[in-house]
Amino acid sequence: MKTRGIEASLREQGLRMTRQRKILLELLEQSGAHLDAEHLYRLARERDPKLNRVTVYRTLKLLKDSGLVDELDLMHWEGEAHYYETRMKQEHAHVVCLRCGKVEEFYGEPLRRMRRQIENHLGFQVLMVRTEAGGYCSHCRVLRAREMEQAAEGARVRNARRTKR
Amino acid sequence: MKTRGIEASLREQGLRMTRQRKILLELLEQSGAHLDAEHLYRLARERDPKLNRVTVYRTLKLLKDSGLVDELDLMHWEGEAHYYETRMKQEHAHVVCLRCGKVEEFYGEPLRRMRRQIENHLGFQVLMVRTEAGGYCSHCRVLRAREMEQAAEGARVRNARRTKR
DNA sequence: GTTAGTGCAAACCTTTTGCAGCTCT
DNA sequence: AGAGCTGCAAAAGGTTTGCACTAAC
Known about the structure:
2 copies of one chain form a homodimer.
Chain A: H1 3-12, H2 19-30, E1 35-36, H3 37-47, H4 53-65, E2 69-72, E3 83-86, E4 93-97, E5 103-106, H5 109-122, E6 125-136, H6 138-164
Parallel strand pairs in A: 4-6
Antiparallel strand pairs in A: 1-3, 2-3, 4-5
Helix pairs in contact in A: 2-3, 3-4
Chain B binds a DNA duplex through residues 14-21, 36-38, 50-55, 57-58, 61, 79-82.
């Protein structure tokens, strides 16, 4: 959804498209990445140094409640911040590397099928589904194995020392 | 996994099974429900009034990092608290009613299939998958429709008043 | 006797709230 | 005028940290 479309959505709800909201929406759309409130705030201040952190939070809440952006946790990869993305794309899962923080998106039939099954089996009217996976990306998997090996080595040394004494 | 099994897991990592941890683990297992830190703390204090809130947090973190319990957000239904459940059961999704807060669990093939696809397509080693859906349960769906109707009615009245003036 | 774990107080970080002033319409 | 919106300061909510003391191994 373009900023235009979002503006229309806001208007329908009797809400206004202010200078601040325009800045925040543009940043959210440009950045393909997943921004958290603080990051978004810093970017926004580059365009308008007076823009307040509170406005960022209020805007994000508004957009979230209007269903215009989705809120993610990314498996709490570093801290409790929430990440936001505009709701333009197809439903997808987020896969986070717990070592390097890389985020990949996963599209696929199982997601849609799950939504349908939840609706049919549980009688829920599903408004949002959030699927997040945590693990190690192909790159970090190797490095991780090496790290574990070294940790085990360290433990062996420590144990040996203890036994000797 | 029984408390026994968890105790063994802790021991393997050179960790200790203290009175406090035993209490917390038992509570987590007994309660089929999804407890948050505060709730767990209150229950724990009934058994040991001196047990500190900080210990609850530290224990939960420990168990989470050891992969012995899973951490949920339940779509941030009321606040930012995290909910915990022991990792005994099969992989499942949590479906939260955004009106009454009821939580249902969903088991099914799509979940397992999704995990496999993420591993195959993205080359990730998946350690945890968390799927949460938000919506309205069959009961609240009806009530919700009624509420929306009343809200719309209210808006009509307000608009009429404004136009008249 | 070591090392891990606990309790207490205080800090921390993210997010929300109250309120006066501003700005669209 | 009247509603929505912003900025500022202050509070809230959930969680973590530093440190001295205690308990498990």
